[in-house]
Design a protein that fits this description.
It is an enzyme of class 3 (hydrolase). Residues 49-203 form the SGNH hydrolase-type esterase domain. GO terms for molecular function: phosphatidylcholine lysophospholipase activity; sialate O-acetylesterase activity. The protein has 217 residues and is α/β, with parallel strands linked by helices. The protein has a single domain (41-211), classed as 3-Layer(aba) Sandwich (Rossmann fold). It is built from ten helices and seven strands. It has a five-stranded parallel β-sheet with strand order 2-1-3-4-5. Strand 4, helix 9 and strand 5 form a beta-alpha-beta unit.
């Protein structure tokens, strides 16, 4: 009976380890970055869900900085919090750009829950490095999730307020630049209506460049 109990415990533990969301993807991201990262250079980390992961020319757009892209597609704010060491802290960045909340809203999480998790992330990052600069990138509008725009707007207001009330934390508004007179610019997206094409990322660049290496964008 005792043997059966320990065997069951082992199998349960093994299965729990196997189903940790994004563990395999995060390990792959880390292995790739560790092979090219220069720990002697100041580092800026971009992380979050697929809108960051698919921004493949980040380093080319900011050639004067060492940029690390640890975006992992489909992630939510709680997933990022789980992997803060692997995706951010292990690289001791002077600045980090975070894009999370998009998938949270789609998963029907309430803005206050998302903000609470983001506050936890910020607390951990600032505890490890009080001088770190954190930029919260607003949720973006999209064709496929346009019906949820009210919820995204509420989340963005909360993110902005969080940044205003927290030292060394800033809010980058990419929502507004993707609209024309309150209507979505539909030519910014690939076929799935969710992810952006090069034109969309060019608009993001125009916003984000104002927050690079600055304390007062």
């Amino acid at each position: 009976m005792r043997y059966f109990f320990f065997f069951f415990l082992f199998i349960t533990t093994f299965q729990a380890q196997e189903i940790v969301p994004f563990a395999k993807e995060v390990n792959e991201i880390k292995a790739k970055i560790d092979s090219i990262w220069d720990n002697k250079k100041e580092t800026i980390v971009f992380t979050g869900s697929s809108s960051i992961r698919m921004w493949r020319n980040l380093q080319d757009q900011f050639p004067e900085d060492q940029i690390i892209n640890t975006g992992f597609g489909g992630s939510q704010t709680s997933d990022l919090k789980l992997f803060l060491n692997e995706l951010i802290l292990d690289y001791n960045p002077s600045q980090v750009f975070i894009y999370e909340g998009d998938n949270d809203i789609f998963a029907k999480k309430r803005p206050n829950v998302i903000i609470e998790t983001m506050q936890g992330i910020i607390h951990i990052l600032k505890e490890r490095n009080p001088k770190i600069k954190i930029v919260l990138i607003s949720a973006k509008p999209s064709i496929s999730r346009w019906h949820l725009r009210g919820r995204y707007k509420r989340l963005n207001k909360r993110l902005n307020k969080l940044a205003l009330n927290t030292p060394r934390v800033f809010y980058a508004d990419v929502w507004t630049t993707m609209l024309h007179r309150r209507k979505l610019k539909k030519d910014l997206f690939i076929e799935d209506g969710l992810h952006m094409n090069a034109k969309g990322y060019d608009l993001w660049y125009e916003v984000i460049k104002n927050y690079m290496n600055t304390t007062n964008p």
